[in-house]
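Quick one: examine the sequence and fold tokens given here and explain what the tokens say about the fold. Here goes:
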Amino acid sequence: MTIDTLSCYCGSAKLYGNCCATYLRGEQKPSTAEALMRSRFTAFCLKDADYLLASLHKEARAKESRKALLRSFGNTQWCSLRVIRCQQGAPGQQRGEVEFAAFYLDGDIGGQLHERSRFVFEEGCWFYVDGDILPPISLARNEACWCGSGRKLKKCHPE
């Protein structure tokens, strides 16, 4: 079994090889802001600093270094992604916003990044510009746990 035959990290229900891998390998460019956001989440899961820098808007990229990005990965294990809302960001549009919650483990401690991200379409590509960090979303005790265990939240990470 190869990584290409596993479910994609972005939560699309597609195989990685038919989903975000095509973006991370440079075979295709994401056609929507949401597709770029999902591929960036996958890049965080795989600690792919080169893709994260390449998909960052040039003004933000000038302030970021590969070395600093690699240091920022630390021991964080990204577990799952929930796209909450997309506004614009479709083919033919120039701007887009994607609100999402990304769940992670840092050692034994679980956490969540809830963000409203902004994207622009320039030079034939979508780029991540910046985002606003939002308060954590509430999760229902009876829904599937964010960590991917297959158990209900109340039985897995009841915090």
About this structure: The longest helix spans residues 33-46.
